[in-house]
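Lab notebook: predicted structure, single chain.

Context: the supervisor wants predicted structures on file for every construct in the current expression panel, including those that have not yet been purified. This is the next one on the list. No modifications to the sequence; it matches the entry in the shared construct table.
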Amino acid sequence: MYQTFATFRPLGNLYRRALGDRGIQTSLGSGSDRIADRVSACAGLSHDRDRRSARRDDFLRNAVRSGDLGCTSSSKHFINEPEGDSMKFGEAVARILEAEGIEIVCGYPLNYVFEYAADADIRPVITRAERTGGHIADAISRVTSGRKIGVYATQHGPGIENGLGAVAQAYGESVPILVLPMGYRRDEAHLAPNFNSTISLRSISKSVEPINDPNQVVPVFRRAFSRLKNGRGGPVVVEIPRDLWFEDVTVPFDYQPVVRTRSGPDPVAVRRAAELLVAAERPVIYVGQGVHYAQAWSQLQQCAEMLAIPVLTTQEGKSAFPENHPLSLGTGGRAMPRTVHHFLEKADVILGVGCSFTPTDFGVAIPKGKRVIHATLDPAHLDNSVVTEIGLVGDAALTLDALLAAVTELTDGTVRDSEAVVSEIREVYDAWLAEWMPLLTSDENPVSAYRVIWELIQATDPADTVITHDAGSPRDQLSPFWKSVAPLSYLGWGKTTQLGYGLGLAMGAKLVHPEKLCINVWGDAAIGFTGLELETCVREQIPILSILLNNSYMAMETNAMGLSQKKFGTMNISGDYTAMARSLGAYAERIDDPSEIAGALKRGIAQTEAGRPVLLEFITSRELRISTHGGDTYISPVPDNFR
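Prediction complete. Output recorded below exactly as produced.
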């Protein structure tokens, strides 16, 4: 490397400092601005004799330290003058992101995209761990129906290895995010045991493509954004070798934002589906997150009201239909209101819209023997696990538009009387809620998690709130009782259930909606995974409200780990998370008296409005009861060897 740079005399101070930081000594003469110009150009930066910015200095120093500038035979031309109107590869990437409306890039360094993005006034958000950066990007895509794409960047090797979970989570939830892992230098990319994203991420991505030629930056990113904007969502990976960032793009740069397309269902199938729905005696609409991505909320409501059809949502689809609507059944998951189970069991026809019907322990199962109309964007979902009588493949909004037109023609536009079905919904729901009210309003101590949820409902405006949960008990305790009334106000999930996911989702939601109250409800197991990201909230000025339910115990595992708990205490966990949050700069309170819940929530919300991230730690009982399988109170069985 010394020889490469030593071919130029004199060597500028900028070169000398960068080399000196790497322990390389030189006896060359005083620096010249011409050489500084060349060095700056290698890093994609402009040299100004009157202001040699610390940013340029640091950027070059990092490139030299990491061996990405002038250290391999493939990068010899870094020290040559740029030809014609060429630009650095990194600048081209930033211009593409800017053209596609990207405002934030999330993740963890070292990845040169953060510097080039900052130079284009795209905000880098740097987390404490790679995975959370992916979760924030995930939320950005979710709360905008994919109209803004979340971007997630990591270092090569251990960076993307640490961040693998975020890609897998987005894949499981069909969330479109652009993943930009650095790759090893091209001469090292296929040497074992170097981690190669183009090989290793294929099973958890919609597509993966490396860039090995700087002049391919436009076509590769064009393909990536086309896959992100069209079809079913999922992570799209573009791996960029670390030595590519400083090369010149020598072909004309011409990038136009890619098109976003929609497709509609077969008109013959639409007519058959309309006829089946009109003739049905007890139809039910089952709604997934495809309604969110298609922004088909008004069409969904029109369809339900025209035919007086009750509506339930999946965890991912929650908030697609207002849960204060008389025809709402609530959300089906591992836990659910009794209305969901009651109407599904009695249904003769089920219309699934924007859903996959994928079997999961955290979703409601479709009873056998039902006539099913399946409207989905992805034909691979048809007959995957549920027998489909009529398949409607296409965008949920276009599908519902077509259904509404066909139903209107068949019924002459007559709106069906909903009084009987609304009365049945109300009767079943009210009876169920009455059974749970003693627990929701309990004064027991330790505090009931349900009391915390109930007080949170009373303290917030659901129309002006974005809320999410973490895996395990918080999800099951929150979902049946929280009524979402506005689209994309609840970020539900459950196809895969990584602990610690909810915090990043709330952070991403707040970045998109700074005017809203953004809440994460999690447990003491989840905070062990991503709790240090509260410091990120403070540093990045992301004032979310974090509700921690702390029972110092792995409650959900009670029925599976009795012997190990009895002999070795394997399910006991501990921590003073209030002290931790305060040490990181957040506002925090520890609450162990039910009479203090409401006041703490009021103070916490006020602090978020003042711009401070908040952790409210509630010391709760080891609650095992959830509303499941018909809405009955269910207690997870305790093995004999645990007693």
